């Protein structure tokens, strides 16, 4: 990892290169139409294990939508055949009523204001309203996307949400080994959790808040001790 500043060139290369938040592909029309990757904000440069996805992570409080990212949104308005969704960005995102697995004009999800959805950002541009869809782009199957029923949604830092999406992070596997749970993590700093008992749901929320870098950064041993005090 390294620190980058706005306008700085980033040496990101891959056959299936995907740029996340904080990076922009800049094309230079000099006859060769070459392109380069520039940082658009200050922060820590990160990449996936196979170096196919790159992004800049900082302590931003507001989510900036980026294509292909998974988010948790709240339906705030019905708009024609679709919905407007609050995803924590500067402006609401649009979600077409047909952007669900198996949806047709006669068979569309009956979402209401206040409902939660787990969606994927299909379009993100600084001059356009973000667009969402609730299916996998390749398979057109739900693959976990869609309405989130029941459970509880909590807000955490953007850094924490990305940590929870890392398969190597200890927290969710640790909790899942102690009691059954369902979880959906959005990179927009929102986490949806569902457990069989209310006390288990409360324990999940408290643990996420405690492990969050903005909330103390508790380690694995600290979480185990905390769960022991709860009898879990």
Automatic annotation (TrEMBL):
One GO term of the biological process aspect: TRAMP-dependent tRNA surveillance pathway
Keyword Lipoprotein tagged: no
Keywords annotated in UniProt: Cytoplasm, Exosome, Nucleus, RNA-binding, rRNA processing
Compartments, record wording: Cytoplasm; Nucleus, Nucleolus
Recorded superkingdom: Eukaryota
A Gene Ontology molecular function term of the record: RNA binding
Cited InterPro entries: Exosome_RNA_bind1/RRP40/RRP4 (IPR026699), KH_dom_type_1 (IPR004088), KH_dom_type_1_sf (IPR036612), NA-bd_OB-fold (IPR012340), RRP40_KH-I (IPR049469), Rrp40_N_euk (IPR041054), Rrp40_S1 (IPR037319)
K Homology domain boundaries: 151-198
Principal location: cytoplasm
Annotated ranges, domain Exosome complex exonuclease Rrp40 N-terminal: 17-62
GO cellular component: cytoplasmic exosome (RNase complex); nuclear exosome (RNase complex); nucleolus
Keyword Cytoplasm among record annotations: yes
Family: Belongs to the RRP40 family.
Name of the protein in question: Ribosomal RNA-processing protein 40
């Amino acid at each position: 990892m390294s620190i980058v500043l706005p306008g700085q060139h980033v040496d990101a290369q891959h056959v299936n290169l995907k740029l996340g938040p904080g990076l922009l592909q800049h094309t230079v029309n000099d006859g060769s139409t070459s392109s380069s990757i520039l940082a658009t904000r200050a922060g820590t440069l990160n990449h996936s294990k196979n170096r196919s996805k790159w992004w800049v992570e900082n302590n931003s409080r507001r989510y900036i939508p980026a294509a292909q990212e998974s988010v948790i949104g709240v339906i705030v308005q019905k708009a024609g055949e679709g919905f407007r969704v609050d995803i924590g960005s500067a402006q609401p995102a649009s979600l077409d009523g047909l952007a669900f697995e198996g949806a047709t004009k006669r068979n569309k999800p009956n979402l209401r204001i206040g409902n939660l959805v787990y969606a994927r950002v299909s379009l993100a541009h600084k001059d356009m309203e973000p667009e969402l869809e609730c299916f996998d782009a390749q398979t057109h199957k739900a693959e976990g996307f869609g309405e989130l029923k029941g459970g509880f949604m909590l807000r955490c830092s953007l850094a924490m949400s990305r940590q929870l999406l890392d398969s190597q992070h200890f927290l969710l596997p640790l909790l899942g080994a102690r009691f059954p749970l369902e979880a959906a993590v959005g990179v927009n700093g929102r986490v949806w959790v569902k457990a069989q008992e209310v006390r288990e749901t409360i324990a999940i929320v408290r643990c996420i808040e405690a492990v969050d870098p903005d909330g103390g950064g508790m380690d694995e041993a600290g979480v185990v001790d905390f769960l022991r005090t709860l009898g879990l």
